[in-house]
Design goal:
By secondary structure, this protein is an alpha/beta fold. It contains eleven helices and 16 strands. The protein has two domains: about 1-185, Thiamin diphosphate (ThDP)-binding fold, Pyr/PP domains (Rossmann fold, 3-Layer(aba) Sandwich), CATH 3.40.50; about 200-320, Rossmann fold (3-Layer(aba) Sandwich). The protein is about 35% helix and about 25% strand. It starts with a strand and ends with a helix.
């Protein structure tokens, strides 16, 4: 176990899989697959595996998404890193091709493909046209595609290993606002299940559910609420599709109160689906969601942060729900 940054943990996973499988390829634009970590060797996939396997392409996210899909259909595992300016451009090919071919071929068409979709637009300081809040809701809507969103370096590595080994196409959402996180991460390869949420805290008064960039604020608010005597259960979705309904329903059946928190638009945010599933399965529960307003994110960092769910706002919503 070594203290590792988010991106180092992810590229360590990719590096090991590429060493084990000479057919695995990585396609990128703008953001080279390079990461460093104190006391550890620098990972540079391009220099280690060469430009035939690690391809720096032109600025064409639709081509990138299609190229890895074609490679996967031809039998070569493949992944591509889509930067935030083009995060939604691959949607059509993922929805219309990747989401359907496994079903259309009766499961015979294996698609070991991973699209890493950067979510930098959920952080302040970008021009309005580059501030994007809808990636999670869009991609989790596609049948036939697994959509995952880690919130810790440990899960980031384990989910990447599982995604690269999966015969199903996987959208791997990367909340870039968490890039500075570090934690103990095993040096060896391991898998985090592609169908299981994580219970981060246990409690009996209130269930709070979030994912990705929403998790740090939720955990901070939970500590505030615990100090006030509230028993808070915190669930990290990790998997948006297929969502772990069982873990959610089990928790809400116990607490009878559910608060969802999303760094996503209020309408059709992941929390809306969480509430719907729990409402269908738990009688007598109360529900509340906190999310980004249905408005374009502004370029002003101050206004942006005012609109985004805060620790104070999360704690306030929890108190109102329990009180």
């Amino acid at each position: 176990m070594t203290e590792k940054s988010w991106m180092y943990a992810v590229l360590e996973a990719v590096q090991a899989e590429m060493r084990a499988d000479p057919a695995l390829t990585w396609i990128f634009e703008l953001t080279p697959p390079v990461a460093s970590n104190p006391g550890m060797p620098v990972i540079n996939l391009e220099t280690e595996f060469g430009r035939k396997r690690v391809v720096n392409t032109g600025i064409d996210e639709n081509w990138m998404a299609s190229a890895v899909l074609g490679a996967g259909l031809a039998g070569s595992r493949s992944a591509t890193y889509i930067p935030y300016q083009g995060a939604l451009i691959p949607f059509e090919v993922i929805q219309n091709v990747a989401g359907k071919l496994r079903s259309m071929t009766g499961g015979k068409a294996s698609m070991p493909v991973v699209w890493i979709i950067e979510m930098t637009g959920q952080t302040p300081g970008f021009a309005g046209q580059h501030s994007c809040y809808e990636e999670d809701s869009y991609y989790m809507h596609i049948p036939g595609v697994r959509t995952i969103i880690p919130s810790t370096p440990y899960d980031a590595k384990g989910l990447m290993v599982a995604a690269l080994r999966s015969p199903d196409p996987v959208v791997y959402l990367y909340p870039a606002g968490l890039r500075t996180l570090t934690e103990e991460v095993p040096d060896e390869q391991y898998e985090v299940p592609l169908d299981k949420a994580a219970v981060r805290l246990e409690g009996s008064d209130l269930t709070i559910v979030s994912s990705g960039g929403g998790m740090p604020g939720v955990l901070e608010a939970a500590e505030v609420l615990k100090a006030e005597g509230m028993g808070v259960e915190v669930i990290d979705l990790r998997i948006l599709k297929e969502m772990d309904t069982e873990t959610l329903v089990t928790s809400v059946a116990k607490t009878k109160r559910l608060l969802t928190v999303d760094q996503s638009y209020y309408t059709l945010c992941p929390g809306a689906e969480v509430i719907a599933r729990c409402a269908e399965n738990v009688d007598g529960a109360r529900f509340k969601r906190v999310a980004f307003p249905d408005a374009p994110p502004p370029a002003s960092p101050e206004m942006f942060l005012w609109m985004r769910p805060s620790v104070e706002g999360i704690a306030g919503a929890a108190r109102a729900l329990v009180g």
